[in-house]
Amino acid sequence: MTVAHYDHAARRKLMLDALPALLPMQSAYHTGWAVLQLLGVISGLDSERAHIVRHVRTLARERPIASVYIAGSADCGLLSVLHEAFGADIAALDVRVADRSPVPLALCRQYAGAMGFAVALDVCDLGVPPDPAERRVDLVLTHSLLSFIAPQERATLVGSLAARLEVAGSLLLYQSVRAQHGAPLLAYTPEQVESMVGASLAAQRTAARLPMLREHELEGIVRAFCAAKITHAVASEDELLDSARAAGLSGVRCEPLSAQDMAGHRPATPESRYVKWMLQGRRAA
To answer: What is the DSSP letter of 130?
Structure first.
């Protein structure tokens, strides 16, 4: 099986080609997420890509990784990170991507097909523990998932993710932590909505990046995205640590991404005051 090398331009073209199929699926958040990345208004996880790739490769050197479970997926970004980390060796991996929405999974299917490797897709509730007969994995990888989970449900989710691991398998989780101020439920202000709309229309007029969309259609997509993106603040790194330890993980580490790692980050929320943290732990025997 031939596996193409990761290429940012190829990933962008794939997302652009997939957009006409995404629009009728009527998922305001996921469609808007793809559109805003294609316009260059937000960076998604691209600004953290090198950091995540380094961590995955380090884990693979410490212990062979034969199976990976991507938990939650806004698009094909985490799958493309995994592809970059393993290169042609991804063809030998057992890779599954799980999310409660089929929209990002459609992008993952298209990406894997274009790059020539297999991926299993699962529409499911990630908070439900795995079936005892289900095969465990060497790595669970997730990005910004906890923001979409109510605080009282997060420990259960982390426990379910940890339960998917083989003994000595690793959980690698990236999460924005919000400073201890402001409302715990995060939504766009009217001013932030107008800022996102203005930036999107300006990008479209400057570069005509999305020729399949008229301006009123683009504005509708951006406004729908802003209305759909209501998330829960993660107030401190201690919450991440406590959840991992309560799930029975050992060797737990929690480290902030440096300013260099986050250089060029364009947040999905204007004037974001988030700091991204990496949480890592292994399943004990």
So the answer is: P
* CA-based nearest residue to 103, from 233, 227, 225, 232: 225
Residue at 198: amino acid letter: G
Of the chain, the end-to-end C-alpha distance in Å amounts to: 35
Q: Mind giving me the DSSP string for 219-285?
A: HHHHHHHHHH--EE----HHHHHHHHHHTTEEEEEEEEPPTTTTTT---SSTT--EEEEEEEEEE--
Angle of helix 28-39 versus helix 190-207 axis, rounded to 10: 50
Nearest to 44 by CA among 248, 241, 197, 264: 264
| Side chain identity at residue 233, one-letter code | A
Residue 92 burial (10 A CB sphere; 0-12, 13-18, 19+): exposed
Alpha carbon separation from 261 to 33, 47, 51 (Å, rounded): 21, 7, 6
Summarised one tens digit per residue, pLDDT across range 272-281 is 556 788 999 9
Distances from the Cα of 37 to the Cα of 116, 139, 164, 200, angstroms? 24, 27, 31, 10
Task: Kindly state the percentage of the chain with pLDDT values over 90.
Answer: 64
The letter for the amino acid at 94 is D
DSSP string, 49-65: HHHHHHHHHHHHHHS--
User: Model confidence over 62-113: pLDDT tens digits?
Assistant: 999 999 999 999 899 999 999 999 999 999 999 999 999 999 999 999 999 9
Which phi-psi region, left, alpha or beta, contains residue 22 (left: φ > 0; alpha: ψ -120 to 50)?
alpha
CA torsion through residues 91, 93, 94, 99, sign: negative
pLDDT over threshold 80, residue 266: no
